[in-house]
Amino acid sequence: MIQFRPIYVICLREFKKFFREKSRLLGTLARPVLWLFVVGNGMSALIRPQVGFSYLQFIFPGMIGMTILFASIFSSISIVWDREFGFMKEMLVAPISRLSIVIGKALSGTAISVAQAVIILVLIPFLGISLTSTQFAEVVAVSVLVSFCITSIGILIAARLTSFDGFNIIMNFLVMPMFFLSGAMYPVSSMPHALRQLTHINPLTYGIDAFKHVLLRNSIPPLGPEFSLSIDLFIVAAVSSLMLTLAALSFRRKD
Amino acid sequence: MSIINVQNLAKQFKSVRAVDGISFSVSEGEVFGFLGPNGAGKTTTINILCTLLSATSGKAEIAGYDCAKDPDEVRTAIGLIFQDTTLDTGLTAYENLKFHAYLYNLDRKLTERRIDDMLAVVELQNRKHDLIKNFSGGMKRRLEIARGLLHYPRVLFLDEPTLGLDPQTRNTIWDFINTLRKKEKITVFMTTHYMEEAENCDRIAIMDHGKIIALDTPALLKEMVHGDIIHLVTADNQKASREIQKTFGITAQTENGGLSLEAERGDEFIPKLIHSLSVETLSVGLKKPTLNDVFLRLTGRTIRDEMLQNDREITREFVRSHRRAQR
């Protein structure tokens, strides 16, 4: 059912293309940098922190989450490109299982997204946060889990999108709300009740909360983590496996 | 021995019966063609054979494997070249072929040599490490043929292999296919709506509205048209048509603003014909029957008429390829 050589070569193709498309790399990295230095610094001046760190530091876990969100969605949306430009057919008529294609896409999307999250970590010294090597390893580990989760969601969406026109709708009605309703910009508990409900069904919320466990460990609620780490990790893992299964199933269907 | 076996195959899309109970078989080593206008059900049939679609009813077998039950065996046995290019334009020729070799689990040691061999066959060996982005339409097609053959398939499917290519490139592609036939002992199954292209086939199935309306060698199909084809333009085509029916008992078909009729010994028939008509004759032409005339005889329409009605399709194709080029 799972064939390793096809999975390997599907991943290899994604990496090659990722490193060839410099603009894509630049685009995904420029976004969090803009948020951190422009929005983060601007807001830091407005919002006087009562606790020992700035607003900029508060949103850093959220920025890692955002990098992963966009990177993963872009990677998985490549499926729509592949379909639009015919390459998907090359994979669909090959003697490989649909599950192998989905796993190949999920693994490559995850790896590319984690790589970008790690690049963002390089900004840490400029933000006045000190990071131990254990924390660094923990951030990478959580990144893997969150990236895999978001990539799986993206693949499920891409499997259902029939044309590229749907992409903007997905960006505006799913990706942006997922970002704003994730606790990345403001604590979940400070939101109005109705929005808070939406935040609770957003898997990214738990991913970002896990980052807060690692990066804002000693801060007091509501600025620090708001859920327990085990709940965070469990929900992210559960959503990942559910989405990946659904994605593999929706690929299998033949009209 | 037949390598493709199709029995009573049918495919029903919501309200359209795209393939309506077709049966045929193709023997090993044959070049078999599907000829018909757009929407005749050619691509749907190919998609069922290559396991991309499931049939509503009926049975299809390739190399002894059932297309519905053993898709992986069927996929290993076939190579495919689709209407639209399915190359990754962001990769090099070599990378596209290597990707294919890995998907088909080709022996690692064999892969490199096979890639070089196939690139040599389609004369792209010196473009091995160039990005597909910089390839012309004809080069892309050639590379796709190389890729389709990479895993030693027993049947090569070509869906409109020369669509959108200029006549010169079209001829080159055919030279390659003919060379390959001799070299690789392969069965070729192709669809086309180009008459000239269909002439290259050993046997042709003419398809219309989901059904096979004729199946034979090009020579025998052309014999269905009796004698020569006379194309006639007169001052009043309708009146002329009635007179021809009355005098000679021949039914003339309307074609390209004139009349088209079949007659044995056309050269001797023309003077008699013009003499018998009361309306003025504007022009007369004589030609040997082509497959287009066979199609006209069988359906009362020419494939070209059908093509014109498919403007929208062509526009869509243009927009798509344009977008692809921009990428």
What does this structure look like?
- The complex is a heterodimer of chains A (about 260) and B (about 325).
- Chain A is mainly alpha-helical and about 260 residues long.
- Chain A contains 10 helices and no strands.
- Chain B folds into 2 domains: about 1-220, Rossmann fold (3-Layer(aba) Sandwich); about 225-290, 2-Layer Sandwich (Alpha-Beta Plaits).
- In chain B, helix 3 packs across helix 4 (about 110-120), helix 4 (about 110-120) runs antiparallel to helix 5 (about 135-150) and helix 5 runs parallel beside helix 6 (about 165-185).
- Chain B starts with a strand and ends with a helix.
- Classes of the chains: A mainly alpha (about 260), B alpha/beta (about 325).
- The interface between A and B is medium-sized, with 24 and 32 residues.
Summarize the structure.
Chain A has 255 residues and is mostly helical. Chain A contains ten helices and no strands. Chain B folds into two domains: 2-221, Rossmann fold (3-Layer(aba) Sandwich), CATH 3.40.50; 226-288, Alpha-Beta Plaits.
